[in-house]
Amino acid sequence: MLSSFLATRFQRTTGGLWRSLSSTAGVSTMLLVDHDNKHLSPTFFSAITASKKLGGEVSMFVAGHKCDSVVEECLSIDGISKVIVASDVLLEHPTAETMTPLLVAAQKQFSFSHILSNHSSFGKNIIPRLGAVLDVQPVADVVEIRAENHFVRPFYAGNALMELKVSEKPVILTIRPTAFEKHAKLDEKKGTVVEKMDFDAPKEAIGSEFVSMKVPEKGGRPDLSTAPIVVAGGRGVGSREKFEWVEKLADKLGAAVGATRAVVDAGGIISNDAQIGQTGKIIAPELYIGVGVSGAIQHVAGIKDSKVIVAINKDPEAPIFQVADFGLVADALKAVPELLEKL
Ligand SMILES: Cc1cc2nc3c(=O)[nH]c(=O)nc-3n(C[C@H](O)[C@H](O)[C@H](O)COP(=O)(O)OP(=O)(O)OC[C@H]3O[C@@H](n4cnc5c(N)ncnc54)[C@H](O)[C@@H]3O)c2cc1C
């Protein structure tokens, strides 16, 4: 097993007597830090809230390269027991293969009762492999924490909620960021301990290699996952040319642009990271405007937590009107230009 190749060494970097911070009884959570080597991901602040809901001690695990500013941000968050830091060029873009042996080593050292991550592309990548190696079934996409072992998660594309109690340890969770408030409090006392962890795995033992990452251009628009306003286009908007009306409306409102899977799959209109829904992004903006979107359950699964849903569709029977707070039965290609004139 890969972890056998990995010698890990922990060093205490703050003064004072050694003491193990992991609880022998009760809850102690390792929170996987989602970041870009410069800053914490905006959605990570929801994971902090979730980890605090579990009670007990919270430690953060940062794997990256030249990520001192991320560690500083972690240290500014209140009530964090320790920040475990693994820094190596191979961790600049962490993969499940590079992260798992480190997390297993940290788990061996500190015996956390819970391991928690966002249900983001980061968490969805790493948690399944970690669960397999630790021989624990992760609980994915948690929307409510009722107790340390008692969770609620959606299934059937969000059409039903499952309540479950977990009896195995450690409890491994991913949480849905839109279901938890973003943690805002900063630390005044700064009592957090930093533990450094060496990454000693021989490159050839890792089994995969990061090659490149292509981040699609957002044209200066806000991030779809966190934007307070989202304008989404569906097949009713048609071609690339007509989709520009959706983008113009978004730009007028300072909104992010999203799309249905039908639009993404059509190709040449918008990149697939704009897909909202069961197999795309789950969003919960203050305002969602769906233009030419039918409201298929798989799409609605991604928008139903929006505060206000507005739908523009020429078919009065379109299912989107069942979930919309405001609906406009109209040809989008006429209604959107008119709306733009009035805004
Ligand atoms: C396993 C699985 C996972 C899926 N995951 C997702 C997902 O994550 N996200 C997702 O979106 N879909 C997903 N889908 C696909 C989903 O089932 C629908 O096919 C898709 O959401 C439909 O997209 P649409 O609303 O753009 O297109 P359509 O269903 O074709 O609807 C187009 C709508 O536009 C309206 N319209 C047409 N012309 C105009 C006009 N001029 N003005 C105004 N309105 C107009 C029509 O009345 C219609 O309601 C998934 C499907 C499966 C099977």
Automatic annotation (TrEMBL):
<comment type="similarity">
    <text>Belongs to the ETF alpha-subunit/FixB family.</text>
</comment>
<feature type="binding site">
    <location>
        <begin position="275"/>
        <end position="279"/>
    </location>
    <ligand>
        <name>FAD</name>
    </ligand>
</feature>
<dbReference type="InterPro" id="IPR014731">
    <property type="entry name" value="ETF_asu_C"/>
</dbReference>
<keyword id="KW-0274">FAD</keyword>
<dbReference type="Pfam" id="PF00766">
    <property type="entry name" value="ETF_alpha"/>
</dbReference>
<comment type="function">
    <text>The electron transfer flavoprotein serves as a specific electron acceptor for several dehydrogenases, including five acyl-CoA dehydrogenases, glutaryl-CoA and sarcosine dehydrogenase. It transfers the electrons to the main mitochondrial respiratory chain via ETF-ubiquinone oxidoreductase (ETF dehydrogenase).</text>
</comment>
<feature type="binding site">
    <location>
        <begin position="260"/>
        <end position="261"/>
    </location>
    <ligand>
        <name>FAD</name>
    </ligand>
</feature>
<keyword id="KW-0249">Electron transport</keyword>
<feature type="binding site">
    <location>
        <position position="313"/>
    </location>
    <ligand>
        <name>FAD</name>
    </ligand>
</feature>
<feature type="binding site">
    <location>
        <position position="235"/>
    </location>
    <ligand>
        <name>FAD</name>
    </ligand>
</feature>
<dbReference type="GO" id="GO:0033539">
    <property type="term" value="P:fatty acid beta-oxidation using acyl-CoA dehydrogenase"/>
</dbReference>
<feature type="binding site">
    <location>
        <begin position="292"/>
        <end position="299"/>
    </location>
    <ligand>
        <name>FAD</name>
    </ligand>
</feature>
<dbReference type="Pfam" id="PF01012">
    <property type="entry name" value="ETF"/>
</dbReference>
<keyword id="KW-0813">Transport</keyword>
<dbReference type="GO" id="GO:0050660">
    <property type="term" value="F:flavin adenine dinucleotide binding"/>
</dbReference>
<dbReference type="InterPro" id="IPR029035">
    <property type="entry name" value="DHS-like_NAD/FAD-binding_dom"/>
</dbReference>
<keyword id="KW-0285">Flavoprotein</keyword>
<dbReference type="InterPro" id="IPR014729">
    <property type="entry name" value="Rossmann-like_a/b/a_fold"/>
</dbReference>
<dbReference type="InterPro" id="IPR001308">
    <property type="entry name" value="ETF_a/FixB"/>
</dbReference>
<dbReference type="GO" id="GO:0005759">
    <property type="term" value="C:mitochondrial matrix"/>
</dbReference>
<protein>
    <recommendedName>
        <fullName>Electron transfer flavoprotein subunit alpha</fullName>
    </recommendedName>
</protein>
<dbReference type="GO" id="GO:0009055">
    <property type="term" value="F:electron transfer activity"/>
</dbReference>
<dbReference type="InterPro" id="IPR014730">
    <property type="entry name" value="ETF_a/b_N"/>
</dbReference>
<feature type="domain" description="Electron transfer flavoprotein alpha/beta-subunit N-terminal">
    <location>
        <begin position="29"/>
        <end position="210"/>
    </location>
</feature>
<comment type="subunit">
    <text>Heterodimer of an alpha and a beta subunit.</text>
</comment>
<dbReference type="InterPro" id="IPR033947">
    <property type="entry name" value="ETF_alpha_N"/>
</dbReference>
<keyword id="KW-0496">Mitochondrion</keyword>
